[in-house]
Amino acid sequence: MLHAESAFSRSGSPRAGRFLRMGCSPVVALGIFLLVRPAYGYIDPGTGSYVLQILLGVLFAAAYTLKIYWRHVVGFFRYRFSRKRIGEKPEE
After folding, report:
1. Interatomic CA distance for residues 6 and 25, integer angstroms
2. How would you classify residue 53: left for phi > 0, otherwise alpha for psi between -120 and 50, otherwise beta?
3. Contact 70, 76 (CB under 8 A)
4. Which one of 53, 59, 61, 87 has the lowest number of neighbouring Cβ atoms within 10 Å?
5. Alpha helix (H) ranges present in the chain?
6. Which residues, at least 6 apart from 19, have a Cβ–Cβ distance to it below 8 Å?
7. Is 26 helix (H, G, I), strand (E, B) or coil?
8. C-alpha distance from residue 90 to each of 22, 39, 76, 83 (Å)
9. Listed residue (88, 67, 69) closest to 79, CA to CA
10. Which residues of the chain, if any, have pLDDT below 70?
């Protein structure tokens, strides 16, 4: 059996040692993902409208937040991209 310390010292990578200490190998992890059987689950028709409602809620919340802080955002970009900044001496 391959010990974690020997794998760690050979590879020189702490990730390899940690992965082997967990009791997994890349081959086992790949096998788990490749051998998964279909679940044949049922998605209710109302699920789509619920997901749409969540997405629209996030979109409207972001738009409202942007509306509230619009002056701050515009002021920030005006300050960042202006040629003459407040408090700086003009170049000659």
Report:
1. 14
2. alpha
3. no
4. 87
5. 4-11, 14-21, 26-34, 45-68, 70-81
6. 25, 26
7. helix
8. 62, 69, 20, 9
9. 88
10. 1-24, 83-92
In whole angstroms, give the CA distance from residue 80 to residue 83: 9
In the block, residue with structure tokens 């409202």: 64
Which pLDDT value is given to residue 92? 53
As a whole number, the mean pLDDT across the chain is: 76
* Residue extents of the structural domains in the chain: 4-34, 45-81
Alpha carbons 67 and 77: distance in angstroms, whole number: 16
pLDDT of the residue at 1 = 46
